Amino acid sequence: MKPLSPQDQMFLLLERRNQPMHVGGLQLARPPKDAGPDYTQKVADFMRSHTKACAPFNLRLERKLGAPFWVEDEEFDIESHFRHLALPKPGRIRELLALVSQLHSAHLDRAKPLWEFYLIDGLEDGRIAIYSKIHHALVDGIAAMRMMMRATSETPEEQNIPVWAMPPRKRELVPGEDRPRSFISVVGEAAGMLGQQAKTLPNVTRELYRSIRAARSNPDYVSVFQAPKSILNQRITGSRRFAAQSWSLERIRAAGRKHDATLNDVVLAMCGSALRSYLKELGELPDKPLTSMVPMSLRRDDSDSGNQVAMILANLYTSIEDPVERLHAIQRSVQTSKDRFQNMSQAEIVNYMAATMAPFSLNYATGAAPRWQAFNVTISNVPGPKNKLYWNGAELEGMYPVSIVIDGQALNITLNSYADKLEFGLIACRRTLPHMQRLLDYLEQGLAELEA
Question: CA–CA separation, 325 vs 356, rounded Å?
Answer without folding.
Answer: 29
